[in-house]
Fold this protein.
Amino acid sequence: MTYPENFRYTKEHEWVRVEGDLGVIGITNHAQQELGDIVYVDLPKPGTLVEQGKSLGSVESVKAVSDIYSPVSGEVVEVNESLGQSPEKLNQDPHGTAWLVKIRLSVPDQLKSLLSAADYQAYVGAES
Amino acid sequence: MIGKVRSHITQNELLLFEQSSPGKKGYQLPELDVPPVDAATVLGATNVRSEIAGFPEVSEVEIIRHFTRLSTWNYAIDLGLYPLGSCTMKYNPRVNELVARLDGLAWAHPYQPEALAQGALEVMARLEAALAEITGMDAVTLQPAAGAHGELTGILLVRALLEKRGNPRKKVLIPDSAHGTNPATAAIAGYAIENIRSNERGTVDLAQLERIVDNDVAALMVTNPNTLGVFEENIKSIAEILHKKGALLYMDGANMNALVGIAKPGDFGVDVMHLNLHKTFSTPHGGGGPGSGPVAVKKILEPFLPLPRLKHVRNKWTFDYKRPRSIGRVRAFYGNFGVMVRALAYILAHGGNGLRNATVDAVLNANYLRKKLEPHFDLPYTAPNMHEVVFSDDRQAKLGVRTGDIAKRLIDYGFHPYTVSFPLIVHGALMIEPTETESKRELDLFVDAMISIAREAETDPEIVRTAPHGTRTSRVDEVTAARRPVLRWKPDEAK
Amino acid sequence: MLASCGLESADGLFAHLPEDVRLKEPLALAPGISEYEIVDYFCSRASENANGYASFLGAGVYAHYRPVMVDTVISRGEFLTSYTPYQAEISQGTLTTIFEFQTMICQLTAMDVANASMYDGSTSVPEAALMASRITGRNRVLAARTVHPEYREVLRTYARHGRLSIEEFEYAPDSGTLNLEDLEAKMDDQTAAVIIQSPNFFGIVEDAKAAAAIAHKHGALLVVVFSEAVSLGILQPPADADIVAGELQSFAIAPSYGGPYAGIIATKERFIRQMPGRLVGETLDSRGARAFCLTLATREQHIRREKATSNICTNQALIALMATVFMSVYGKQGLRELAEQNLAKTHYLANKLKRRFAGPFFNEFVASADGISPDEINRSLLKKKIIGGLALARWYPELKECVLLCATEMAKREQMDEVANAFLPAQQTT
């Protein structure tokens, strides 16, 4: 799986893409591979304020829990409810239908400080 | 080649609800010697339930067969070695079961008059004294229900003392090798947790400790020997560093099976510790409990112990509730008395020398296993180990076989797996504790099995990765169990 | 074996310990004794306790007959000496019985899910309160004064150093039930939970529905506690509760001077992930056969560590198994009949005495002593080898002339007549 060019990435393996004034957030393919079979995702409610670098929820496999760190600051406006019934989507389509939340960006400039697809690819390439 | 195991028939068995039939009974109550009352009249019709829908209705013989068949699907100490690290799966003496069931002890109500409970109080007092002697501490409470409960009690005691001194402080230090109950406990007691890294020996790094102990640190929670089975050789210095800054040393006593009769925590600077009666003191694990987690303290913490405390007044035992500094109760009544009886029976059976001999055997057995398995499995920490030893799956992982797989393949050889993937400081850990119960013969069978599996990892890794093969149940789908939890039986129409 | 380790003597095993830490003296404990002497020691201790006494004590620990089958089953080595079922392939016996246990608790309490047991009823209460706090994000708890006094003490100990604050609300002096006006007056939008017990400490059945209405109106959860599990054989289950916490000692668990017992937490489906304690779930093995395993472990301490729903590690597996066997032996009809017998025995006794409260009661009630003190009553009963009820002055100074009496299916008519006689003032020996 390649890393979409129009996404931005964090070293904690989250991605964000822009949709108007919203940032759509998810976890990367590398993250889901490391976690193994995902069984549950704990996401914030719409209206919650999140801060760049702070945990907005967590993702669980059978034997581990990982925090999800928000790549950007803003207000949660939409949550991907389908993940409640089918958390396995995160393993199957982490960059597409398994997006986690949509955030109204409060500081759009934050995107500039995140990694590009090439930089992220190099980073995880170096890690493994 | 698999010397210990032969296949045998284990029957299938439905759930109780699936074999129920309306009207079947397993009980008979006596005739009433008083007039019956109409429930709706005395309770009010709205307070009376209709039937307990779906509750089992089976006969006595169906009950005995049900549970007997189910029991044959379990592994148990009575069947063989459990090499689980830090669990101390030693033999559960049967005399303990007999004495715990004596009517005068088993039917004692916690509120019966003290004059009619002197036997129970004497048992508790004797156990408190024995545990104080074994740990080298000044006072013991038997109230906590289990190890984690004892940990919570211990940290609450620390907090109470520090509060009395004017500042409860903010954080508790926990080594990265610690059992998960340690940080969970500290959090409930209102402390933040700071992890302290182990050094290359696997023990607490003195220099790092010196740097991070400040006036915000309430205590260090240490397990000694640690979860690698290694004794903290600098434990006295560790205590000094803490005490100098007004902090306390808490010891998790899960690994006391390495120390009884050899060393006393009270001698090397421990202020407060808990014990696990269901580990070191032979009370049965029973499939997951009950336990008992007594806490032993130095004099400075004694005033804060949970109430009530046992007191000897005019030749009789009594409970003292006048304890103004006590942290309060951590549970109703006095503790898991039935478990205390079993632990005391174990102590009486061994006596001082017997307890020391048990420790020597436990440490010898673990060292024997280390020597025999070292040529085949990677040993990440080479410091001398005591009653347990931790290997890593490094060599086998290169062949695609992980500790979890080796553990499952061990089942085919007739053993329960060792502790997998813990402690966290060892990647792919195999944590092995044989206890003193095991003879050389059983240990050799275990060694043979492990060596055989190491060979299989080279010649036939697939058979290891897909193990176990000989059990009634093969590997279960834990993923679906967590994704779509089904936590109770439902009748078909309701599914 | 020492040779294999390269050692000449056992002392070599400990040579690496600091010299000043190694014990030079043996432990100051009496030498080990034989099995016969051990049995003798404990028989002597047992004889120093009450033996052959009838007892009318309840107050959280109940004298119910223990069917022989219970010890027969739990004494099997495969149940007694097995470990926590982390390795599902060789623990299906334990896992299956826990699944049955969880199911039966749901059936009894009308909740959707129950855990594999807590330490006991008293510690289930703070666990339920913490659970409610996590769910609502609030920190205040209102507990009824008619919840068992020692359960409330434990709640306060747990709360003292966490974020919870505990306040109590009153009971109505005539009925002995909840004072709902007092509850309403004390509620606010910071309350996480209202905690009530039914039957309450006085043995009286509460109106959980009314309490639930008040709690929910303010966005709080209702926790219903029970200490006498047999009551569930006849009483309406606490379906209005959000969380049920309780004690199973009545189900063939010996009183054993206060423990070990087994508590439970049961709740609605939507709160599953906030539950503490072990959970067993149904699944399939790789061959497609039904199997059970521990699940939702990410709530627990060994994974989530400081963020766990609780620090609890043990569940009272063997004790819960006793309860499971008990529930199978009595079954649907038997538990009902057992409860009806308890009801009949207690009401027989209560009708002979002056009751302090007018509310409906199950197998415990509060009797008023008139012209004779509770201590005198109990002293005279002891002479007849009867342990009387609990004098309430200990926890309820306003009830200092009252006694809490419990009559189970094991109480005999003649004994109850003696108890009633003992309440008559200036009694001549009959």
Q: What stands out?
A: Chain B has 15 helices and twelve strands. Residues 359-480 of chain B form a domain with the Aspartate Aminotransferase, domain 1 fold (CATH 3.90.1150.10). Residues 337-373 of chain B form the longest helix (37 residues).
